[in-house]
Amino acid sequence: MSEEVRVREGRSRSLAQALEEHLTEWAERTGIIVEIWALPAQDVPPGVARTVLAALGEALANVERHSRARVVSVAVTFGRAGLRMTVSDNGVGFFGEAEGRGVVAMRTHFEQLGGALSVNGVPGEGTTVTGVVPRRD
To answer: With 28 labelled, which of 18, 59, 60, 101 sits at a CA distance of 20 to 30 A?
Structure first.
């Protein structure tokens, strides 16, 4: 039985399908170009899928609100070691520690699954959010 994630209107979709749909809608709404570098080719446990969707939503909200980016690149992979999500933008970046409710929420989502999340900014060059969740079989 394949594990799927529930999205709007009760439809079942794989994580890759849910991500692609969300990213397409977000790009159309914001006018920011989204480059999809990778999406998971296999089933992802539902709890991990929900975490990725929640964290991605927060990362994109931060891009829209703060970055002034023109392009966002997204990669989500799932393999033997676990899941890795990377969201990078070409916006204004920042100096110092990433703070705020959104960053705390993203970290909490990943930590609840035994994972971790980092947010790194480079002033004038953009920001990268990276979340990892170890695989548990």
So the answer is: 101
The 3-state DSSP class for residue 121 equals: strand
Distance CA 53, CA 59 (A): 10
Query: What are the phi and psi torsion angles at 95 (to 5°)?
Result: -115, 140
CB atoms < 10 A from the CB of 66, how many? Answer: 17
Alpha-carbon gap, residue 44 to 47, rounded angstroms: 8
CB 16 within 8 A of CB 44: no
CA–CA separation, 19 and 87 (whole Å): 12
User: Which burial class, exposed, middle or buried, applies to 8 when counting CB atoms under 10 A from its CB (0-12, 13-18, 19+)?
Assistant: exposed
DSSP secondary structure letter of residue 14:
-
**Sign of the alpha-carbon torsion through 58, 62, 64, 65:** positive
pLDDT (tens digit per residue) in 31-77: 999 999 999 998 899 999 999 999 999 999 999 999 999 999 999 99
Please provide residue 123's backbone torsions phi and psi, each rounded to the nearest 5 degrees: -50, 130
The packing angle between helices 15-30 and 46-62, to 10°, is: 10
